[in-house]
């Protein structure tokens, strides 16, 4: 699996609850349409392990079969729609991509 991982913080004027509801609701409706999307996991962050990790609201992991499939998704009209919906929200994000390796399964 090749993943796009997004760590996001809400816009300053939004509550955490509002941001998670939007991310898992209206924004999810657009994200689910991405071509080539094989898996999507979302974590609502409710606590930070240490002070330097504070200030984030959620993590989204979007899985694709290959880097090429992710590139196609990022060039798609569906991605453009999702980006347009975010607009100028003024939240923060970190976006990184890479190959997944399963390290442990119970």
Describe the fold and architecture.
With 106 residues, this protein is of the alpha+beta class. Helices cover 31% and strands 27% of the residues. It contains four helices and four strands; from the N terminus they run E-H-H-E-E-H-H-E. A four-stranded antiparallel sheet has the order 2-3-1-4. It is globular and about 35 Å long. The model has no long low-confidence stretch (mean pLDDT 95).
SSE arrangement:
Blueprint: E1 2-9, H1 16-24, H2 26-31, E2 39-44, E3 58-64, H3 67-74, H4 77-86, E4 92-99
List keywords for this structure.
EthD_dom; 106 residues; 4 helices; Dimeric_a/b-barrel; globular; 31% helix; alpha+beta
Largest sheet: 4 strands, antiparallel
Quick one: overall form?
globular
Low-confidence stretches: none
Radius of gyration: 14 Å
Distance between the termini: 19 Å
- Describe the strand arrangement of the main beta sheet, using strand numbers: 2-3-1-4
Count of individual helical segments:
4
What structural class is derived from the secondary structure elements? alpha+beta
Mean pLDDT: 95
Beta strand count? 4
Percent of sequence in beta strands? 25-35%
The secondary-structure element order is EHHEEHHE
Helicity range: 25-40%
Domain EthD: 12-83
Protein name: EthD family reductase
Organism: Streptomyces milbemycinicus
Pfam families: EthD
